[in-house]
Design a protein that fits this description.
Layout lengths: L1 H20 L16 E6 L4 E6 L3 E3 L5 E4 L20 E8 L5 H12 L8 E5 L2 E10 L3 E9 L2 E8 L6 H13 L1 E2 L21 E3 L5 E3 L4 E5 L5 E10 L2 E5 H4 L8 E4 L12 E11 L3 E2 L3 E8 L4
Parallel strand pairs: 12-19
Antiparallel strand pairs: 1-2, 2-10, 3-4, 4-5, 5-9, 6-7, 7-8, 8-9, 11-13, 13-16, 14-15, 14-17, 17-18, 17-19
């Protein structure tokens, strides 16, 4: 009888040892649990999970994940456009690290900006990985950026417009930072990006900046169609408000570098005589956008 008990004990011990040494059946069990003030964001495709405050909504633009403060998900589409009224947002982008460390990525970005920015990187540890925090980066608005390399993938977290006195944005940052957890992921090879020169801008063929356009007829626009462009996003703002956007209002991008607002169309009905800010950017192979190129036109009724 004693021998039988010992055999049972040995068998149970062996089973427990095997269970403790084998991978967990559910890789998401290490993800943080949401609270009354937070929600769980699970992105198994890109290999991470995290918590975010309940006031933010998860949006999936073409190349990254965005956390927008209101239900209007278009905040994420217009964050780079000059003059857009954009509440605070967070962006999470995943790309190939190409054998670079987080420090190498940060150093290269700081070197590219030049000495005038005086950006001091700060080393952090996030879910056991070395991370580098950069403040003082500039775009359409100030940016706080965190870069992390895990499993040869580069995770870039951007918070904009960054303001250390904005309690909602600081809470978003700290909540994500303290809860981010990496998951096993086997990403398919990412599309090779069509690399463009630093500071690249699309070139308008017509109209030109400051041109007067007949308010009562069709408005025609063209930029040079560039190799590697999957489509173009056209955004029109008047008095600081986006009045028409092809991605928002037509649910898609256009090809060929041309766009038209036709006479008598629902789009034209939204415009009034006066200055219009026209912004265009290209979605490139590799699922990233160029910087927006912006001109101003003046809508005016033709004199008889």
């Amino acid at each position: 009888m004693i021998k039988k008990h010992w055999l049972i004990l040995i068998a149970v011990t062996a089973m427990l040892a095997m269970a403790s040494c084998s991978p967990a059946g559910d890789s998401t069990t290490a993800c943080p649990s949401p609270t009354t003030d937070t929600k769980l964001l699970m992105n198994e495709e890109h290999g991470y999970c995290l918590l975010h405050p309940t006031g933010y909504n998860v949006v999936y633009p073409p190349m990254e994940t965005c956390l927008a403060y209101t239900v209007n998900s278009m905040e994420c589409q217009f964050v780079t456009f000059a003059g857009a009224d954009v509440p605070t947002s967070a962006w999470i982008n995943v790309d190939e690290a190409l054998d670079r460390t987080a420090s190498e990525v940060a150093d290269a970005e700081i070197a590219f900006l030049g000495s005038g920015f005086n950006i001091e990187p700060t080393n952090l540890t996030v879910d056991g990985e070395r991370a580098v925090l950069m403040d003082g980066l500039t775009g359409a608005d100030p940016i706080r950026k965190l870069v992390i390399v895990h499993n040869d993938l580069l995770y870039t977290l951007s918070f904009t417009p960054w303001d250390k006195n904005d309690t909602a944005l600081v809470n978003l940052y700290t909540t994500i930072l303290n809860s981010l957890h990496f998951l096993p992921v086997d990403l398919k090879p990412m599309a090779t990006k069509t690399m463009l020169p630093a500071g690249f801008q699309l070139s308008f063929v017509y109209p030109v900046d400051g041109q007067v356009v007949d308010y009562e007829h069709a408005y025609l626009f063209k930029v040079t169609d560039i190799e590697g462009a999957q489509g173009y996003q056209w955004t029109f703002s008047q008095n600081g408000i986006i009045v028409w956007d092809n991605l928002r209002d037509e649910s898609g991008l256009t090809s060929g570098g041309t766009y038209a607002i036709l006479e008598g169309s629902p789009a034209q009905d939204r415009f009034s005589p006066g200055e219009i800010e026209v912004a265009v950017r290209a979605l490139m192979v590799g699922d990233y956008y160029t910087d927006a190129t912006v001109i101003t036109i003046i809508l005016r009724a033709a004199e008889n």
